[in-house]
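so my prof wants the structure for this chain in the tokens format not the other one, which i didnt know existed until like an hour ago. anyway here's the sequence
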Amino acid sequence: MGVSHIPNRSDQPCERWSRRGVLTVLGVVPAAVLTGCGGSADASQGAQSSASAKVAATKKPVVSVSPADGTRKAAFSDPVEVTVTDGTLASVKVTGNDGSTLAGTYDDARTRWTSTRNPYSGTKYTVTAQAEGVDAQTATFTTRSPGETFVGYFTPEADSTSGVGMPVSVNFTHAVSDRAAVEKAITVTAEPAVEVVGHWFSDTRLDFRPQTYWAAGTTITLGLRLKDVEGQNGVYGTQSKDVTFHIGREQISTVDLATKEMVVKRGGATYATYPVSGGDADHTTWSGTMVISERFKETRMESSTVGLGDEYDISDVPHAQRLTTSGTFIHGNYWASTSVFGSQNTSHGCVGLHDAKGANDSAVPGYTFYESSMLGDVVIVKNSGEESVDPANGLNGWNLSWEEWKTGSAL
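here's what i got, hopefully its the right format
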């Protein structure tokens, strides 16, 4: 009975411990398996990273140029770009077959270089680019030529000396629709420095002047950077140059047609006084501020060229100096009586001084005034009975106030 009883009491406890032992083992095994899996993954990743590093170490920098190497008709309206992948740029040089070079800047990572201006048209460029650690590479491209072109003809002439009233006037060979682009490409600077502003008189004429007359002795520099500037759709400028002018002494002459007298001042002091004759009541002389724009020791004057039919045709007018495009001059006169000058206004609109036929008599007013004058000198006419001259009629923008002048700028 005892034997049969002992197994009966021990069945349940043994069964419970046995189950606990099995659960414990099952709880440990998965832990070991996860640990084992984790170690295998780390080893694999390490191997992959090592392989990637080896691949990266074997990659070479690749340099690209835009426009692409060999391009024959590249656009000249975009900058040149050089980029590198898998590296950094050590140096970039862009040279044109005209001897010009294109400067440029790098981005912060030195993986991109961009030219600071666009390439010129019709030019072959060689790009030499070197990435760190490798040999330099070269590429070439040629920009296309523009279709229609324009230039600006300027007054005064290069290296000339003019009076204090001479504006810088640029006349274009093609109408300009993008005035801002063209005006931005032209600079006029002065020494001693003064503010200079442009004024458009038409779509083919742009003048520059300061607020008041230039100071005597000023040096003026005109900078033309019109090459490849699109003045009108498909029409491009061709010039890139600097031109220097000089301003001489100050001479300002005031013609009073009420008193028939002209007073010439140099540097503010009276230099000479001349009796004159202006336009008669039917042919009044323009009033206002005018600038001498052309000078002729002798020239032909014909009334038909100024709309006056056949009233006169004089082949040898002495000492003629142009004041307006429309035909107003201040000139010598040998055909009128000496008594006319200082007493009567008898001309067809010009201002006349007594002179001699042949233009060689140094004792007459026409000769002496001409010899004392230069292009750009100021001649002011008052009490003529006529309105002020149109500022666009000759180099006569001084008849506009400074505010009026500035409103004519496109910038």
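also thought this was worth mentioning. The longest strand covers residues 313-322.
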